[in-house]
Amino acid sequence: MVALRDVTLRDGLQDETPISTEHKVAILELLLAAGVTDLELTSFTRPDRVPAMADADRLAELALGSPARMWGLVLNLRGAERALAAGIRNLQFVLSVSEPHNLENTGRSVEESLNELRAIVALAESSGAQIEATLATAFGCPFVGQVDPSAVLAVAIRARELGVERMSLADTIGAAVPTEVASLVAQTTAVAEPSELGVHLHDTRGLAIANAFAAIDAGADRLDGTVGGLGGCPFAPGASGNLPLEDLVHALNAMGQPTGIDLDILLEASALACSLVDRAPTSHVAVAGPRFARTATAAGTRS
Amino acid sequence: MVALRDVTLRDGLQDETPISTEHKVAILELLLAAGVTDLELTSFTRPDRVPAMADADRLAELALGSPARMWGLVLNLRGAERALAAGIRNLQFVLSVSEPHNLENTGRSVEESLNELRAIVALAESSGAQIEATLATAFGCPFVGQVDPSAVLAVAIRARELGVERMSLADTIGAAVPTEVASLVAQTTAVAEPSELGVHLHDTRGLAIANAFAAIDAGADRLDGTVGGLGGCPFAPGASGNLPLEDLVHALNAMGQPTGIDLDILLEASALACSLVDRAPTSHVAVAGPRFARTATAAGTRS
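YS: structure for the whole thing
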């Protein structure tokens, strides 16, 4: 059974006009009620660069005590210290495999980010926190285009050597195709032997769900998604969101693969989150409803 | 290599406010320029029921002489006679596996539709035309919900016994999941041994592309799609269109599986068709563009 991690509160909201911490808690409560047990809560980044995550410390405080595994995204040691001080026990360290993207996103070279990771591993060990390394631009970069899988594997091996056992492969710009996802999941598993390997997908070219199935077939342990497919660049409406979680839950349910998630409540979370950021969902099930939920009594479609 | 059939001019337009025959020809010319060699041109149905297809005879006349294989959809002998008189050489006979849907769509029971098919086979043989049987509601029906695969196989066997060698399995309401598509493609191939088996998918629950890959892996010969994902119920915007052809072409190209279709020209056809019916494309590549087509120079996304 593949695990699902909701990343609505971080990746789904980070580029939006900030919503209140109380509204985030309301979304969180619906996600938890739906049965979500793994989620990205926020990022501990610079409030001037990511204003929508400026309330990270307060949100973490309000969310403390939830039974779910809550991740805080960090880009450096400073962020990790903030996250731990706020009570976060699961640090999601993001670095990009592509040098120009890592520079843009973190202000560091990949080597410098790996040095930050080394320090964070030491900090986490002393405080009993978990670390995941998310390898961004693993399937393509907005600056250099195609990314060599061997570069991804090299970073995965380095992270593993530093003691990181959990990893995610992120298709940051939604460029991956299923064959590439399957291949990179298999290769990362073989060379870095992560204890938990996630895949983070965007639907930019309409392939998020197909890539998710490819990842599952290749043995990925976990997939990220947002309700409503929220997230991504607000300047390409309908094209760049995260993998729509309700579509994946609906599909897995229909395929007899239990997710532990209640679709109806997840759809409530989706409706609330989309309404709070004033965006139409890019997910399909949020619009059409689950299959066979109700049957028509008037004219159907023709073929 | 899987073949791709464009169904924009029929399934993509049939529920829209009618556009002029000249505009249909303009779309057709771009599709042909893009390298489309197989397409649904129109349907020979009742103009009062499908006004957008009322110009079927004239469109067929204008399209005659094209090197592409052009299909005319028919529901009965009368339609087949019209199609042949208009010069159509490829008759796509549609019947629904589900009784209430077939009644709604054709005014006949499934048995009565099979009787029509028998008469059409005789007519086609005498005039050298090809026939395909499209089995609608093969994965679900708006009236009865789930459809038993054995009912689909029974109709496929009957069609084959009548001499029909080409078939399509149509997910009329976009209810299928990849495991079901793979299973039904394999079973239909085994019991009916079609010379050509197509799969017709709708993206109602966001699974059209994933289902397409499942169909390909299971040995389907052909997939249907529309530019812009046009088609489906206009009352569920963004949720019910056909498989978006440019997204599939983009994916197959990126996976090194040649389609023979020029994506740039196909995107021109998509833009024209969407503009003529005043709808935003539900395809993703039409909005985001192909991967790695251009690289950014400004800020990218964060993870």
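YS: worth flagging: The radius of gyration of chain A is 18 Å.
IM: good catch. Also Residues 118 and 162 of chain A are 6 Å apart (CA to CA).
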